[in-house]
């Protein structure tokens, strides 16, 4: 038990990397289970292609959409943006598009892992490619005339021609080559994107470290005080209900206040605020909107500001 605080501290320090690693491992494990237990190629010229593509791409699409749903930044952008009298648009043109690009890049980790592991396994690709007429013509060049008709039976080892198993090895080799190319491309993209965003960072490396520590502390204190305030308000209302009395005055932020601190963070070199709440409490005038000021900009490397919340993901 004495080591628990140290372990917790290390987890909080590296929680992003650990989360991405866990997502990757779970996705890879899920794909292996699907491939071994659920997937069964129909070995039909009509169904091989759609069946293989469904198992290869549909789970990837589902994981991609789930990545959006579990991002706190998605709900910061969307919540209340279509309500009558709310702020115009959902993110405001170029700004909203930039946030969507960042969200898409983060949400793409799990689906790309699924596709890469599936290609390395080869089963989905073999089934889909064996049902493609174009692939059949290409693979069967110079072979027996009945090769194209026999090709859909290859994944089930039902082909009658003796040299058809060589085609199965060729399809698996193609699948694995594509899988390694995809893995290399993703790693290269992450390296380039991270390097470019860090090079364009308006703050230093150590200031980013301090920034993340501040956000962790702000969210912990916010959750504690929000819980205390909500408990006090609930107790007062219940007491007044049973005693048939009027409640004492309890200061609670207005709808406008909540909307202000729920908006997306923008960086301004003139006033370096560490969160939208920090920016809100330091505004010069109480009626002044903090959503758009001259010089404000969305900076990719500072996306972690919006990603943090009372919980790391939206509660749905």
UniProtKB/TrEMBL annotation:
Molecular functions (GO terms): monoatomic cation channel activity
Membrane topology: Multi-pass membrane protein
UniProt-listed GO biological process terms: ATP export
UniProt record similarity statement: Belongs to the CALHM family.
Main location: membrane
Record-annotated membrane-spanning stretches: 50-70, 177-196
A Pfam family: Ca_hom_mod
Species annotation: Orycteropus afer afer
Keywords attached to this entry: Ion channel, Ion transport, Membrane, Transmembrane, Transmembrane helix, Transport
Name of the featured protein: Calcium homeostasis modulator protein 6
GO cellular component: plasma membrane
Localization: Membrane
């Amino acid at each position: 038990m004495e080591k628990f605080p140290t372990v917790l501290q290390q987890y909080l320090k590296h929680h992003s990397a650990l989360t991405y690693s866990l997502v990757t491992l779970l996705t890879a494990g899920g794909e292996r289970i699907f491939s071994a237990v659920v997937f069964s190629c129909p070995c039909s010229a009509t169904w091989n292609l759609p069946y293989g593509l469904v198992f290869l791409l549909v789970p990837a699409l589902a994981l991609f959409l789930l990545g959006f749903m579990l991002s706190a930044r998605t709900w910061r952008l969307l919540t209340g943006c279509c309500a009558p009298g709310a702020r115009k648009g959902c993110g405001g043109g170029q700004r909203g598009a930039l946030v969507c690009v960042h969200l898409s890049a983060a949400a793409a980790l799990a689906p790309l892992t699924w596709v890469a592991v599936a290609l390395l396994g080869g089963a989905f690709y073999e089934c889909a490619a064996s049902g493609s007429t174009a692939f059949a013509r290409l693979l069967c060049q110079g072979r027996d005339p009945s090769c194209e008709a026999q090709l859909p039976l290859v994944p089930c080892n039902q082909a009658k021609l003796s040299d058809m198993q060589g085609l199965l090895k060729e399809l698996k080799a193609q699948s694995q080559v594509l899988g390694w190319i995809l893995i290399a491309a993703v790693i290269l993209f992450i390296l380039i994107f991270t390097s470019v965003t860090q090079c364009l960072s308006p703050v230093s490396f150590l200031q980013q470290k301090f920034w993340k520590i501040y956000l962790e502390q702000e969210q912990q204190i916010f959750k504690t005080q929000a819980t205390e305030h909500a408990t006090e308000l609930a107790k007062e209302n219940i007491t007044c209900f049973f005693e048939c009395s009027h409640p004492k005055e309890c200061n609670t932020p207005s709808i406008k206040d909540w909307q202000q601190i729920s908006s997306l963070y923008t960086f301004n070199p003139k006033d370096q605020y560490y969160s939208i709440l920090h920016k809100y409490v330091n505004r010069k005038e109480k009626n002044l909107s903090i959503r758009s000021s001259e010089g404000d900009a969305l900076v990719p490397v500072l996306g972690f500001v919006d990603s943090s919340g009372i919980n790391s993901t939206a509660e749905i």
